[in-house]
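Give me C-alpha cells for this 221-residue protein.
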Amino acid sequence: MQTRKLFYPLAVLLLTLACALPGGISGPTVEPTMPASGTVLLQDDFSSPFSGWDQASAPQGVMDYDGGVYRFVVNAPDFNFWSTPGPVRQYTDTRVEVDTATLAGPDANRAGLVCRVTGEQFYFFVISSDGYFAVGRTNGAQSTLLGQDQMALSANIRTGLAVNHLRADCIGSTLTFFINGFPVSQVNDPVLTSGEVGLLAGAFDEGGADVIFDQFIVMQP
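Here you go.
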C-alpha cells in the first residue's frame, strides 16, 4: 500500500474586528440563539460566480467557478489549493456536505471538505479517485492524520470519474467523515474549536489533478 503524506503550503489571513461602546466600555454579552438541528446555515450550487469563493490563477493551478460547479486544477505535484466562501463566517459545530468528481488527471489526487479554518489551521476530510481517504489537521506546512497513519482504502469510494458525496461533521471534539452515506472515520481532537468551512483539492507526486465540486451545504448538526 502506498504511503501518502499530506502537504499544505498555502496560508490565509483572517482579520478580527472588535467593537466597543464609546468611552471604552464594552456592551453586555448576549448569547446568540442556537439554530435548530438541521437548519441550513449556508448553501451554494455555484450557479453564480459572485457567491464569494476564491477566483485565483497561479502557475501551481487554478480555483474558480466553471459552468455551475467550483473547479480546482492543481498543476504542481505535492500541492494543495483550498478555499472558503466569503464573507468570513465563523462556525463552531457544523455538518458540511458536498458532491465531488474528478474530471481529469491522476487518480492519486485529493478532494474534500475542511472545517474550523483559522489562519493556517483546519481539519480536512479528503478522498482520492483511486479509493483512499483521510481525516486530519493541518497547521501550515505540517499535517497530522487523525486515527490513521496513512490514507486508508475504502470500498465506499466510487473510483475514477464517478461522483462521490462527502459529509464532514465537526461537533465538539468529535470529527466524523461520511462517504456516500457511510461513516468511514470518527476521531476525537480538541485542538480547533471554531472557524470557517470550505473545500480542498490537491495532488500527490504527479500534478494535473482536475476536480469539481457541487451542491455545497452547511447545516446545524
